[in-house]
Amino acid sequence: MPIQSINPLNNQTIEKFEEHSDQEIEKILTEAESTYVCWKDFTFAERSQRMYAAARQLQQHKERYAQLMTNEMGKVKQEAIAEVEKCALTCEYYAEHAEQFLADEPLKVPEGEAYISYDPIGTVLAIMPWNFPFWQVIRFIAPNLMTGNVGVLKHASNVSQCALALEEVFREAGFPAGAFQTLLIPNKKVNDLLEDPRIKAVTLTGSEGAGSSVAKKAGEQIKKTLLELGGSDPFIVLDDADVARAAEVGVKARMINCGQSCIAAKRFIIHQAVYDDFTSLFLQKMQQLKQGDPNEEDTDYGPMARIDLADGLVEQVQKSVEKGAKVLLGGTRPNKEGAFMDATVLADIPPGTPAYDEELFGPVACLFKVDSEDEAVRIANDSRYGLGGSVWTQDIERGKALARRIESGAVYVNKMTASHPAVPFGGVKLSGYGRELSHLGIREFVNQKTVWIA
């Protein structure tokens, strides 16, 4: 059965791809293994030279790569260009810092000399989603190639053009052919890959269900996993916050990538002293956003990635309203072609509704009024997710103290939650485990070997 790329703007098929056969999969894994044998012995200087070249490849062709994203999953063109630029920045970051991050680490021992060495382990499988089709992959492969590992990618089927373009990036940059390869396969073939002894570890960004399934299978094989799953990030606005600034950033934090981001602000928890002002400004700015063709420069948000995703989001909103949630804005899909969903704001959301308990992966913001800092923390932590979070206050020490009370992998004070190559990224609870990016990310899939010399 062919894999299809479908443009969510008009529901037209862009291209069809034949799934890789078992023989083709075998060839890819064999090439990865043989490449690893030589690639692990390349010097950091040799790896860095190629990684800098990958950054240049991304920059030089960013318009073309961005267009692939826009066509395949509906990302606004300017956001897509920014995504490619961020990928180039990350390649440069690891080209510059990998040798330092992986240098032998001295240990204090009672006698002799001891240190930790960080050694590559082999072929790492990446299972990646469609929402940031270049970024999710680059933040995995750039550090892993710099460690001496090699990678194989099972990307989301609706962004297969992006997957193949990423393979092109590293091939054109001078990496060995087997250093990074794309597998065009359905989800049902992932278990076979996890059982293959040539796959040493797996990283997955995706849903809870996918993460649980992969972790279970990898656990049976005693293989390390890194999971970055869903999120329902709190955006806490305290009574002393700069309300205008919080509302402005809050709209961006909710609506970037049409709201289809794990670390998007989703639950806005607002102190009652500033609730009315914040809500008024937030609604005003949400209403000003222009929905339309993601190729047009004045479009603020385009379609969602697929029609079934838009339909599912509407269903979550409707179920929440039936149980008492109030619609302040939107709540429906517009009557036009494509996977569009109107910008939506919900309030008075009771527990037990999808808007309270589930991740709303699209342009829907949920508002909660609280009467104290303690209640804000309670609602923020009353979630099965724990990926990111944001706190808004003009008292920095108060913000730092509150950040420690939030159960998440990251909390930003007076700043929108966003990933950056220098900052660790990952979650707790059902948002997953392990860390990507920074020095922590590059050490996830290495053998942290103790050496002690008498």
Summarize it:
The protein is an alpha/beta fold and 454 residues long.
Write a structural description.
- The protein is of the alpha/beta class.
- It folds into two domains: 3-229 and 431-453, 3-Layer(aba) Sandwich (Aldehyde Dehydrogenase, Chain A, domain 1), CATH 3.40.605.10; 233-420, Aldehyde Dehydrogenase, Chain A, domain 2 (3-Layer(aba) Sandwich).
- The chain is 42% helix and 21% strand.
- It has 15 helices and 20 strands.
- A seven-stranded mixed sheet has the order 12-13-14-11-10-16-17, with helices on both faces.
- Helix 12 links the parallel strand 13 (344-347) and strand 14 (364-370).
- Helix 9 (243-255) crosses helix 10 (272-288).
CATH class of the largest domain: Alpha Beta
Going across the major beta sheet, what is the strand order? 12-13-14-11-10-16-17
Shape: globular
Q: What is the CATH topology assignment of the largest domain?
A: Aldehyde Dehydrogenase, Chain A, domain 1
Poorly predicted tracts of residues:
none
The CATH H-level superfamily of the largest domain is Aldehyde Dehydrogenase, Chain A, domain 1
CATH architecture of the largest domain: 3-Layer(aba) Sandwich
Residues in helices, as a percent range: 40-55%
Mean pLDDT: 98
Query: Which class best fits the helix and strand makeup?
Result: alpha/beta
What does the oligomeric state look like here? single chain
Q: In percent, how much strand structure appears in the residues?
A: 15-25%
- The count of β-strands is 20
**Integer-rounded radius of gyration:** 22 Å
**Count of runs of 4 or more consecutive helical residues:** 15
Largest sheet: 7 strands, mixed
